[in-house]
Design goal:
- The protein is about 5% helix and about 40% strand.
- The chain has 1 helix and 35 strands.
- The strands form 7 sheets. Strands 1, 2, 3, 4 and 35 form a 5-stranded antiparallel sheet that branches.
- A hairpin with a 4-residue loop joins strand 16 and strand 17.
- The N terminus is likely disordered.
Length: about 375
Amino acid sequence: MASAYPGTPQKRSRENGKANVMTHTRLTRALRAAAAAAVTTSLALAAAIGPAGASPQAMGATVGPRDAVSVAAQAGSSSQRTTLPVTAYVLDDTYSQVIPIQAATNTALSPIPLGGSPIAIAITPNGKTAYVTNGDSVTPIQTATNTALSSTPVGNGPVAIAITPNGKTAYVVNQGSDTITPIQTATNTALSPIPVGNGPVAIAITPNGKTAYVTNNGSGSVTPIRTATNTALTQIPVLPGPFAIAITPNGNTAYVVDDGSGTVTPIRTATNTAVSPIPVGPFPGVIAITPNGKTAYVANDFAGTIAPIRTATNTALTQIPVGPDPDAIAITPNGNTAYVADYDVGSVTPIRTATNTALTAISFGYPFHSLVAIAITP
């Protein structure tokens, strides 16, 4: 699963754009992706830890491990999965490390040093390996021992990563090279890079694993990739600033967030055709889709709102006020609650999805500017 998140230079450049000219280099953790919907990642458990050496408990507040996060790995069969405890892996860009958290107790374990600049993380469906984009390489981490292995060189500026549902291939978005690097997970070998459009920033893979969709922020397009042959297909024109992307659990629709126009463009995956954009509000960033596929939630950066979209009609509903800079959305596996992490305030706001009502924010006392991504083992 792909995950690139705020706290990186991409985030800072986007905030500069708010004050003057809007830039489109910040990435989403899309993304984060729900397990069945390709790319959605979650940040709610990041509040369980502070900077290196801080208490693993968040200033007396507790976020339930099953209610506060969604699994950031594609679903695999139960026979494929490990029996290790569920663990959240948090990227700390400030200290260039990965901090494991035991989800059952919200206990932070010893950090895993990486060096470089970790930005995105994805975990294989069997839960055995976490892949972290780090500098111009990808570092595998054995989750059984929390040991970092030798890094695999990729292209320039890797900013997002997604893993196929069968766990065989990780696709790395190289923003600086305008390419996608496939990595064979069995040997951690990088294959030939796949050229895409200008400034790729995010990636999502269909639930059947046949197609990866890459948003090209500089080209105003989305590039489908046929994963069987690692061949880029004809680019799909969208609005000028495509950013985050998420795919519905049935695989029929990819929703592309355009942060420049304040819209979300649905793409019919059967024909790779973009339909009419949906206005959602200023500076939309991340997107997450409920497990039943009925609602997409879009975070409007700087507006401090979440825009729900009814996917049956592609209609934006009444916006939900949250913190001033919502930058991550995670939806619980039962779909009852969406958790919204605020980058500036360092709080998490639960949303009751049945009524689209924001509940009392969970405050943690200090912002988590350096925690840039999180993924959860299956």
